[in-house]
């Protein structure tokens, strides 16, 4: 389903008026599609994605809408995705006076590589945020408490499309969780 929200699919639909992946998703997930515009179909597909399959695309889009378009300005802020840093790829980066790397951990992810990712991101940036769902928050707290990283990590948690900020404070080389909602 998330393949629908790609540049290639949209380009194909625009240039040719048709894409087989788009048509397949419509047939599988949308009822009464013949009476709906493409805009309505895309909105409906996105809402299904939001409720049933919150993948990395969904999180990136939420960050883009809530932070870049909702807090910052397109004129003063740059957003980057999939930027290689050491042996990792930063999922999402916002640059606006300061640069913040956002590492996204969806419901489909685990935290096995997180310590290495955070360490690598701090080699290039001063601010790192881990974005996850409400259901994974306790697992993330447990994982981060075992790290021996000497910097702060700010964690944004997705809860019904809202971003909440939590702080994880470093005390004696280990992270301690402190909510600052």
SSE map:
Layout (H helix, E strand, L loop, with lengths): L6 H10 L3 H10 L8 H15 L3 H14 L8 E8 L2 E9 L1 E8 L8 H11 L2 E7 L3 H9 L7 E7 L2 E10 L2 E6 L2
Report on the structure:
It comes from Anaerostipes butyraticus. InterPro entries: Sce7726-like. This is Sce7726 family protein. The protein is of the alpha/beta class and 181 residues long. The chain folds into two domains: 2-52, no CATH class; 56-179, Trna Endonuclease, Chain: A, domain 1. Helix content is 38%, strand content 30%. The protein is built from six helices and seven strands, in the order H-H-H-H-E-E-E-H-E-H-E-E-E. It has helices at 7-16, 20-29, 38-52, 56-69, 114-124, 137-145, and strands spanning 78-85, 88-96, 98-105, 127-133, 153-159, 162-171, 174-179. Strands 1-2-3-4-5-6-7 form a seven-stranded mixed β-sheet, sandwiched between helices. Helix 6 links the parallel strand 4 (127-133) and strand 5 (153-159). The longest helix is centred in the N-terminal third of the chain and has 15 residues, at 38-52. It is globular. The chain starts with 6 loop residues before the first helix and ends with a strand. Mean pLDDT is 78; it is low at 150-156 and 166-181.
């Amino acid at each position: 389903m998330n393949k629908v929200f790609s540049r290639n699919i949209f380009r194909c639909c625009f240039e040719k008026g048709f894409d087989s992946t788009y048509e397949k998703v419509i047939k599988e997930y949308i009822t009464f599609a013949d009476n709906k515009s493409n805009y309505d179909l895309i909105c409906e597909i996105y809402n299904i994605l939001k409720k049933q399959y919150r993948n990395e695309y969904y999180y990136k889009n939420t960050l883009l809408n809530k932070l870049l378009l909702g807090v910052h300005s397109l004129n003063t802020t740059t957003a980057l995705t999939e930027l290689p840093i050491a042996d990792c790829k930063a999922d999402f980066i916002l640059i606006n006076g300061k640069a913040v790397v956002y590492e996204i951990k969806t419901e489909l992810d685990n935290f096995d590589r997180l310590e290495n990712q955070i360490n690598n991101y701090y080699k290039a940036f001063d601010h790192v945020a881990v974005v996850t769902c409400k259901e994974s928050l306790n697992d993330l707290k447990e994982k981060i408490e075992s790290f021996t990283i000497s910097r702060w990590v700010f964690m944004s948690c997705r809860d019904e499309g809202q971003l909440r900020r939590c702080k994880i404070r470093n005390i004696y080389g280990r992270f301690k969780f402190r909510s600052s909602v």
